[in-house]
Automatic annotation (TrEMBL):
The keyword Secreted belongs to this UniProt entry's keyword annotation: no
CDD domains: ABC_NikE_OppD_transporters (cd03257)
GO MF annotations, alphabetized: ATP binding
This protein's UniProt keywords: ATP-binding, Nucleotide-binding, Transport
SMART domains xrefs: AAA
InterPro entries linked to this entry: AAA+_ATPase (IPR003593), ABC_transp_ATP-bind (IPR050319), ABC_transporter-like_ATP-bd (IPR003439), ABC_transporter-like_CS (IPR017871), Oligopep_ABC_C (IPR013563), P-loop_NTPase (IPR027417)
Family: Belongs to the ABC transporter superfamily.
Annotated organism of origin: Nonomuraea corallina
Protein name, entry field: ABC transporter ATP-binding protein
Keyword ATP-binding: yes
Ranges for domain ABC transporter: 19-260
Amino acid sequence: MTETQAPAEEVTTARRTLLEARDLHVEFTSRGRRARAVDGVNLAVGEGEIVALVGESGCGKTTLARTLLGLEKPTSGTVRYGGEPLKYTSRALKEYRRQVQLVLQDPMGSLNPRHTVYEAVAEGPRIHGLPDEADVVNTALGRAGLRPPERFLLRYPHELSGGQRQRVVIAGALALDPKVLIADEPVASLDASVRGEILALLLRLRDELGLSALVVTHDLGLAWNIADRVAVMYLGRVVESGPVEQVLTAPRHPYTQALLSVLPESPERVVLTGEPPDPTRIPGGCRFHARCQVLASGKAAEAGVDGRCRNEPLNILPAATGAQAACYYAEATG
């Protein structure tokens, strides 16, 4: 196998694809060194679908999310919405961000402490010149579970609980009636007792409004509870993807197996050595091979693929809906 990219496959699914990355690359240059933060990603989010993007810190998932939002421009490849390539003019991006909204992990950081709840939720509708502002704000707060809305309109962020603040952030996104939410670690800063409420809210929004979501997280337990499909990212690439139940009950990639092993119900803990490699120095062969427990244990040698793991780059995974893994050992052992 070589690292050359075959034409991106069309996603065959009953759901219409709304948001898509096609052979996406995002590079940053600092002090003459080129960092491949996103290094060839194909990913699709269907209508009414929740996709979890999972990986360690530094794997490129936040850069990918920012690129899907139009906040970063890809070095190569395309972001497509509704089948059309994203345009980067101010007017096109403004319209696009009515359809695709961001929900950040830190509500205190994303809410202005001097603005009331009403002002926070009304900001987007004002920017976009939407009519009936008060009705839009009340409806958005109600959908986000802040009922009755009148109780919250004049409160400030410091007067709310963490869960209420996150609901205000979600209401601010809902006020523009988007089709897709991109949620970056949406419950990471919340108490365990509140996390389930916010996840249940996202599921309810999907069921009642047909909303799609890409949920960026390091937590496979969260992915299990909320996602229809999961994409596992390592060092700028998706290394395994598929229906969440299939991937998380029978993971094929050693990296996914290691991430799952930290969950309480896991029978065996896999301790990964070292940190993810520097994206300015991506290793040859499988990019995970230096930390791979299967290669270290000799199992890859028994399957006759250890040389390929160390030296032969893997193909980039397509945006397919079925389970798939970029791993020579998984291919060899079926």
